[in-house]
UniProtKB/TrEMBL annotation:
It comes from the Bacteria. The gene is trmD. Pfam families: tRNA_m1G_MT. The keyword Lipid metabolism does not apply. It comes from Rhizobium indigoferae. This is tRNA (guanine-N(1)-)-methyltransferase.
Length: 227
């Protein structure tokens, strides 16, 4: 069964975005995955198609209404076991481990927040899993949703030309990725490390692992602590 992604958004025209190109776009053309962008505003019932209201208790901005969003979620996921994600800066950080868990399923439903956020009641009532792509705030959940889908689609079976490519990347095995080099042998006075042209595959793998550990220790020591 092909991987199915449903994205609930106020800006469906933002999809598929960059996912319509390169590996993801070709995989979509082959039917390996599909993307449906659902307009949340279609589920408003008043003549103005209102999707937001002022925050209870006062404060700046607007909040997505629970009744409208719930109808959109129910329409996209009736009798549907796919995980329901809400892109949110207060969510749990997205990890490669979670990406792999999502990639082996039938698909995913992603809710893109806007304004000040989403009414807490619909988060609880519809079992939304809040997911963050980093410690910063975007104008909406759409760019984050594209990133999540990019991470998932590229590791779906058959999407990458060489499935082994995904096994030697940053965060696989708890380390950042080792440095890469290619021809020419010398460029602007800088040489490819001799070990990489030695033909000694055992020594090359050892060097790559050592470099991965070194970079991880320098840039993301928290990953080594978690391991």
């Amino acid at each position: 069964m092909a991987f199915r992604a449903s994205v609930l958004t106020l800006y469906p025209e933002m999809f598929p975005g960059h996912l319509g190109f390169s590996l993801a776009g070709k995989a979509m053309e082959r039917g390996q995955w599909s993307l449906e962008a659902v307009q949340i505003r279609d589920f408003a019932t008043d003549k103005h198609r209102t999707v937001d209201d002022t925050p209870a208790g006062g404060g700046a901005g607007m909040v997505l209404k629970p009744d409208v969003l719930a109808r959109a979620i129910d329409s996209a996921s009736e009798n549907d076991p796919r995980p329901r994600l809400l892109m949110s800066p207060r969510g749990r950080p997205l990890t490669q481990e979670r990406v792999r868990e999502l990639a082996v399923g039938d698909g995913v439903i992603i809710v893109c927040g806007r304004f000040e956020g989403v009414d807490q009641r619909v988060i609880e009532a519809r079992g939304l899993e809040e997911v963050s792509i980093g410690d910063y705030v975007l104008s909406g959940g759409e760019p984050a949703a594209l990133i999540v889908l990019d991470a998932i689609v590229r590791i779906l079976p058959g999407v990458m030309g060489n499935d082994l490519s995904g096994l030697h990347e940053s965060f696989e095995g708890g380390l950042l990725e080792h440095p890469h080099y290619t021809r020419p042998q010398e460029w602007e006075g800088r040489e490819i490390p001799a070990i990489l042209t030695s033909g000694n595959h055992g020594a090359i793998e050892k060097w790559r692992h050592q470099e991965a550990v070194r970079l991880t220790r320098e840039r993301r020591p928290d990953l080594l602590e978690e391991g």
